[in-house]
Each structure stands twice: as C-alpha cells, then as structure tokens.
Amino acid sequence: MTMPVIELSEVSRRYDDGPPALHEASLTVQPGEAVAILGPSGSGKSTLLNLVAGLDRPDTGTVTVDGVRVDRLGEAGSALYRRSKIGMVFQFFNLLDDLTVTDNVVLPARLAGTARGEADRRAAELLELLGIDRHARAYPGRLSGGERQRVAVARALMNRPALLLADEPTGALDTAAGQDVSRLLTGLNAEGQTIVVVTHDLALARSCTNRTVRIADGRITEDVRSQDVRSQAVASQAVR
Amino acid sequence: MSALGKVVRAGVTRRRVQTLVIGLATMMAVAASVLGGSLLVVSGAPFDDAFARQHGAHLSVQFDAGKVRAGQLAKSEDAEGVSSAAGPFRTATITPRSDGAGPGWPMTVVGRGDPGRDVDEVALLDGRWPSHSGEIVLSADSSLLPTMGMKIAFPDLSGRPTLTVVGVARSVTHTADAWVVPSQMPALTAPGSGGYQMLYRFTDAGTAAQVTAGGKAVTKSLPPGTAVGEQSWLTVKKTAERDTAVYVPYLLAFGALGLIMSVLVVGNVVASAVGSGTRRIGVLKAVGFTPPQVVRAYVDQALIPAAAGTVLGVLAGHLLAVPVLAETEEVYGTSSLGVAPWVDLAVIAAVLGLVAATALASAWRAGRLRTADALAVGRTASAGRGRWAARLAGRLPLPQPVALGLARPFTRPARALAMGTAILFGTVAVTFTVGMGASLGQVMKAKAHDAADVVVPAPLPDFGPGGPGPKKQPKADPVAVATAIEAAAGTGRYYSAATVRATVPGLTGTIDVIGFTGDASWGGYSMVSGRWIDRPGEAVVPSPFLAATGTRIGDTVTLNGLAEPVTVRIVGEVLDPRNDGRQVFTDASTLTAAHPDLRETSHHIAVSSGTDVTGYADTLNKDLAPLGVTARAGGLDAGGDMVVTLNALSAILTLMLVAVAALGVLNGVLLDTRERVREIGVQKALGMTPRQTVAMVLTSVVVTGLVAGALGVPLGVALHGWVVPAMGDSVGLRLPGSVITVYHGAELLPLALGGLLIATLGALLPAGWAAAARTATALRTE
Fold first, then answer.
1. CA-based R_g, chain A, Å
2. Domain residue spans in chain A?
C-alpha cells in the first residue's frame, strides 16, 4: 500500500481561550491527489494548512507528511522540513521585491545549500516550463498578478517538493489570471504533483482539484471526490 | 486622560526599545555634561575667588639685597602699568629645626608688619599676626605641619634664634612659607645674604605676555641683575588648578562625544519613530487629529523618556563627580565643592531643548503628511533601492542568508548611515579610552621610574615636630648598602638616587634635587628633549621647572639652601609630574661639596639575565638586614588616585557610549526587522532556519560595523592625539612620544573589529526576535 503524503490524526488546535480553531480533525491525502480545503473565514482551514506546513503545532493529535512527524519538529527542523518536503504558494505571492525573478525562484534551493549554478539551471527550467522565462531578470514589481503567481509557483517547485500547498492562490487575481493559475495547478497535478489548495472559491476547487474537504467551526464536515463536488455544485445552483 | 495623552502614552509604552534608547542616550549626555561642567567650574572658581578677595599679587619679584636699596624698589611702584604694589619686604631662605625633630627643609621667610590689604592680603586661618620679634606665622602649605605654639629654631644662624608659631595663614599667590615682623629679619638673615620682595598688581595681567611686560616695566629703572627671581600669578594659578585642569580636556572630549552621539541617536530614534509610524499617523489624522496635535504627540513621545533620562543623568553626573571633586577639595583645602546648581539647570535646559528641537524637526514631517499618503504606506511596492547590492551579493560565493544580509544596508542607506555613525562614535570612544589608559600608564611609569627589578627605598625624611615614641633608628649608610648590592650574585645594572632639598631663585618653597650614583638613564626616565646627564655639573629637569623658572635647555640654574650654592647646567627635559615638576636630576658628585652626607638614598637594581627577581631580593635582604633597610621586588608604586579616578571614569563613560551605540544599532535593526517581518516570514516559510535567520540579521550590520570600525579607529587615535597633549599642557607638562604614540598595529585591528562587536551586540536581540517570530503570524502581518 502506498504511504500517504499527508496523514492528520485527531488533530486539535486552540488559540488562547477561544473556541478550537481545529477540533479532532483527521485527514489522509494520497500521492498525486489534488485536494481543496474549503470553508468560510475563521473556519479553521488556514490552521490546517499551517499545521501541515509545519508553521504551527497541534495541541493534540499527530501530523505526518511524507513520513515526517511534523508535530514533533522544532523551529529548525520545521524549516528543514519545509525546505525539502513542501512548496508554498500564497494569496499575495510573497515575492521579495528586491530580488529578481530568478533570485526569488532559487531562494529555497540556495537556503538548502544548492550550488548557485545548479539552482540557476533548475530555475531556468521551471521558468520556461511555466512560460515566464522572459521575465527571469525582471523584478516582481513589474509583473502582472498572474505572472507573479507563476513565479511563486516556480519558487514552490524549486526543491521538487512532495507536496504543494497553495493558500488562496487566486484570491488576489482577476478572473483571467485566476483561470490561468488554475490551469497551471491542474497541469502540475496531471504530472503527479500532490497539491493541497486552501480556498473559499468553489470554482477553483472544481476546476483544479479532484477532492474537496469542507471545514466549518474547526471540524471537517465533508470530504468528497470530484464527481460529488460537481453534483453538489449542480444542486446548489438548482437551489438558488 | 485626553485623546492626545492616550496616544502619547501608547506610543511611549508600545515602543519600549525606542523609549529606552532615548532615555539612555539622554542620561549619558546629561551625566557627562554635568561632570564636565562641574569640573570646568571648580577648576577655576576657588582660585579666582580667593585671588580677587585677597587682591593677589600678579607678580612677586625677588631682589638681591646686596645690589639694590629699599628706596629704589619703592619707586618701582610708579612704573607704567602698575596699579598697586606692596613692599619692599625683607626675605631670607633659612633652614628650621622644629620641636623634637631633625632639620627641616629650607623655607622662605618674609618680614611684613601686617597681613596687607591692597596687594596680597594674607588670609589668617588661625591665631594672629606676629606683633613682635620671636613670633612667626606659618603658611598653611608649610612642610612643617603648622601647629599653634610650636617652637621653631634656626640653629645655623648666629644667635640661634627660636620663634614661636602664633598663627597660620595662606597667601593666594604663595609669596612666602612664613612671615615675621620686619624687626625680626636681621636676626634671620646671614651676613651677605637675604633679599627683598616686591609684590605688584598690574592694570592688565590676564596673559603671560602682559605679566612679563609688567615685570620689565618695574625693573627698567633698577640696576641690571638686581632681580633674581619672579613668580607670576598665572603660574601659581596653573599649579593650583593642576589636578582638576588635567580632567578638563579629557572630559570635554567625552562630553562632546556624548552630546554628538545623543543628538544622533535621539534624532535617529525620533525620526525612525515617525518614519515607522507613518501609517499610525495616517490613522490619527483620519480620526480627527490636527497636524499640530500629531507633532505634539511625537515630540512628547521623545520628551517623556528624555526627561526621565535627564533626571537619571543628573544623579549619575553627581555620583561621578563625587570622587573627582573630593580630589579637588584636597587641592584647595576646602570642603564645600559641589556641583553648582546652575550647571544642573543649564545642562537640563540644553539637553531637553536639544531633544525637543530634534523631535520637532522630525515630527514636523509627520504633521505635514497627507492622510491618504500616510495610510497608503505599507501597501505600495518598495522603492527598489539597493537592488544592485542584492544582485552583487547573490553572485558572491556565500550562503544565501549571508548574501541577503550583506545587501540589506543598501536598501535603507539613511538608516544604515545612522547606525554606522552610532557605531563610529562608540569605536572612537573605545579607541580613545584604550589610548588614554596606555598614556596614563606611560606617565605613571615615568612618574615611578620603575624600570628596576629590585628597589631598596630611601629612608623617610623628617616631617615637622616629633612626637613621643620609640627613638628613631640611625639612617642606613648608603655606601654599605651599595657594597652589599654590588657583592650580591645576580646584580646586573645598578644605581642609587639621593634626594636633598634646595631652593631656586624665583620659586617659593623647596625643590627636590636628586643626585644619581651610577648610570640612571635606564631607570625609566622618559626624555622629552635634550639628553641625559653624563658628567658632574649637568642636570635634567621636568617641563614645569623650566616654565616656572623661565629657563631653557642650555641655561644654568643655582641651587640654594645647601651648605653652599651649586650651579648646574640644564642639558635635558625629562617627563616627571611628581612634586609639580619641581625637581632637578643631577649626578651625585655635583652635590658632594654642598651636601656631603647623602643619606636619603634609594638603590635601584636590574638583575642579570636569568636571575629570579624574588629569590634575588630575598637573598639580598639577608645581607641588608643589619643595615636597617629592605629590598623589594618590582619598581616603586606606580599607582595614583588621579589615574585610578581617570581610568574609572574612562571605563564608565566608555561603557555608556558603547551601550548607547549598541542601542542605536538595536533600534535600527529592530525597526528594520519589524518592517521586514512579512519578508522574514516568507523566507522562513521557504525553509530558512532560525540559525540562518540570525545569520542574515547579524550579517546585515557586518558591513556597517566594519566600515564604522575602520573609520572610528583613526578618529579615536586623532582625538587621543589632541586630548593627551592638551592634558599635559594643562598641568604644564610636555609629553614625550612614548606617552602620545601609544597605539600599535597589533592593537588597532581588534579596536577596528570593536565596531563589528558593537554592531553585533546591538543586532543580537532583533536577530533572536526575528528567528523566534512565528512564521504564520509573520505571514499575516500587514
């Protein structure tokens, strides 16, 4: 049996004295899956993403990603884990304005100690693959939103991660750019990249993922495969 | 509390580091200024007050009684420029013997019928003025330790007169060691000796040139060669102020450093507070704060910690001034010296005014900002400064965090410049202090003349009247001691030094004449100019001696008060601050005829190579025991309260400056880190470890620290090169190269790296904060 990429078991997280941001959540993601985490603001989806990314630690339960017990890692271990196992794409791109596109893309590899030449070659491949190689020496501020998100995706893929995490990747983009990014993620998943997308955009979830997990009030309320998603979307439109 | 008050309080309490930096910078500036200002005041005020009150003599001139008549001298009062005069008074230099003690030191006695009024009014501190022969008033500064009713005998004079001490007095211009009624003088004057003293006040006597001109005017009508010595009030003033005067250039330097750093750091912190609070300013204006209210809010945010720092600084300044003023009190014999209240008030007003002005200039910008522009800050892309540096650093074969850190200062050049300037001044302070310590060490070495491995100290001289107690042992025979030393195994080089007291025309009181047997040139005597003595009849003297006697190398000087006058030729100027430089070093054979019994002799030995110094001293002591003297390993005591005080002050002030410099860096790096928190969050999300984060933040100050350190060292050396000679000048000492040129290549590199250390110290806290910042939180930061 194939080892799952993500395995959350009875995970809970509470901030201060508030209600649990995540309550006894369990989730398993297999290699090659594209999973959308859906839910309104404050539902717990960002908490779940942070726990998987090793940016936060659960109060109870276990988080295992590609065989690594993320919940047991310290700060340095988490950094090494992120560097080697995951790539992250953010809503507002989070590119470093003072670095060129290439320098942004090579950053994870350089932090991992990859030689500059090797990192540059890998970055050039990715930029070409994503169709933004002509912007290699430009600064992010001169690119469109869609182009910037492509750069962010290239950076996320730099260290060949087992898992690509995307947090509202189209949230700051117009419709056309959003569709462009959606197609990009679909293509990556088609090539075998495991993807988890946190979004409240049902259209994005439908277009580029094959599984949807809904969260409400810190609990996983729904976990459906793509056929089910499409059925529910039709049902929702009928209700309206 | 008003809305404005709440905003100010929130600004002060939320920005704790900025508040702390402003407070500490202000405290340091105030402490240094209070200390410097107080010293400036007390170094001049007691003498000036006493001089004005006692109508001190601008010039006292000693005349040869055998060459000029009293009537001729009286007419000199009418010379041009003389506003008033006193005298002529008969004078004699005689050696007393007080109750129960051996011979004392020669003293200058003046015959005056009363303490005077218009010129050199002698202040009677105790008892009364002599009313008839047989009575004497001693100067409070007399070596006889004046006691009322004490009998003083002069056995060397015919009739062996004995006088009773009826008073203790002080002349502000030190015109005599003792006073008697004029009718007493014939009995105190040996046939063919004695002189006259004339005391003058001039209409203009503020400068040495004016005093010299006055001296020429009063002697113009007199036969040449009648004036055998003179003493300017400026020389006396300089001597009186010597201990405090030495601090002044040093404190001025530290005070200036402190003030400049305070302006820079406070200005930078306030400007940074405004710069980093731009969005907050926008919010304040959006909710209805007027531009003047915004300005006031930011000025108050600077003034509150500055006021707290000022209070602490005044307290610290007073505490630091205590040991310094205590030494000053000893100099003037007073007990009431303290920090003048007006110094406190002036410093408080000046520093708070400075802070307010700096804050106002920065806050004015905040008040003028358009609300929309202020609110937009943080949402727009960065200006893109320093991209070339990022590109260049990225191409260097360095780890990525290091490359990112190296490029950072170029994205905020103004901030890097402010940090660099703080580090620069910190480095200047450290370099200056290290140099000061080395220079003072050299001066103390010259003072102690402690190059010898083993010393047999001279027996102590007799002081004042003897008291009941065991009978004194006879003094050791220096010849026997020398024989024992020469016979000891392991003796390498060796010389002995005998001290006698003498007087010199023109100088009140006695001087020390040190006669050497053997070559003493290796004994730790630093030559300022000229050469060491190499034959009888030659002498080397300290700079103050040359200044006080108006002599130069090549001149001759006559030593009186011995069995017979001894004339020596000055061949060199030596560094020796002891006894106000009133010393003459010569060959012992020069003194043979005038003082055959040189019993006050110390012996200085350099052991031969490979000899254990302690073992040598122990063995020698067995031979010296019967002679009543003891050898000890090591040179003479090189300590000194003034040096201890100066070194302690240096250490405290330097630590304060370094702390402020490090706080300036801390403030800058913290602001930078806060501004970049999201960027750091991204980097951490991409896999930057805490250690890499620390490395990146620390590296961001490396270039600044290195450059500031490299610039600060030569500036510190230059400051030292200016202050140390000025300190020497203030006490009448010319300093040799060994005291001024104290920096060596091997020391300069660590000093230059001190800039890096200051920068690293300042950046450590923000680096730790950045490393510990939660990535998820940082990513959400707006």
1. 18
2. 6-239
CA distance B390 to chain A (A): 7
- For helices B641-675 and B291-332, give the axis angle rounded to 10 degrees: 170
| Residues in Cβ contact with B233 at an 8 Å cutoff, skipping those fewer than 6 apart | B51, B56, B57, B58, B59, B173, B205, B211
Distance CA B211, CA B206 (A): 8
Instruction: In chain A, count H helices and then E strands.
Output: 8, 10
- Which CATH number does A6-239 carry? 3.40.50.300
Chain B residue closest in CA terms to A98: B387
Mark out chain A residues that contact chain B at CB-CB < 8 A. 50, 53, 55-56, 75-76, 79-80, 82-84, 88, 90, 94, 96-100, 103, 107-108, 110-113, 116, 139, 141, 155, 159
Contact between A139 and B387 using a beta-carbon 8 Å cutoff:
yes
In the beta sheet, which residues pair with residue B568? B557
> What tokens were used for A70?
């993320």
The ranges assigned to domains in chain B are 1-56+239-380, 59-204, 383-448+640-782, 454-462+475-633
Closest in B394, B686, B776 to A111, CB measured: B686
As for the ipTM of the complex, it is 0.77
Candidates A137, A80, A111; CA nearest to B403 is A111
Interface of B with A in 232-261 (CB under 8 A): none
Q: Is B776–A108 a contact, with Cβ atoms under 8 angstroms apart?
A: no
**Local confidence pLDDT in tens for the 240 residues of chain A:** 578 999 999 999 998 888 889 999 999 999 999 999 998 888 888 889 989 998 888 999 999 999 999 999 888 888 889 888 999 888 888 888 878 899 889 988 988 888 889 999 999 999 998 889 999 999 888 888 889 989 999 999 999 999 999 998 888 788 888 888 888 889 889 989 999 999 888 888 888 899 999 999 999 999 998 754 444 444 434 333
Joined together, the tokens standing for residue B215 give: 């001296």
Do the chains contact at A139 and B384, CB–CB below 8 Å? Answer: yes
B644, B444 in Cβ contact below 8 A? no
Question: Shortest Cα distance from B775 to chain A (angstroms)?
Answer: 6
- Which residue among B381, B687, B772 places its CB closest to the CB of A82? B687
B58, B61, B87: which is closest to B220 by C-alpha? B61
Specify whether the CB–CB gap between B173 and B233 falls below 8 A.
yes
Q: Using N-to-C axis directions, what is the helix angle for B413-448 and B745-772, rounded to 10°?
A: 140
A98 with B771: Cβ contact below 8 A: no
Residue type at B640 in one-letter notation:
G
Cα–Cα nearest to A23, from A55, A49, A58: A58
The answer to whether the CB of A119 falls within 8 A of the CB of A99 is no
The partner residues of B127 in beta bridges, in order of sequence, read B167
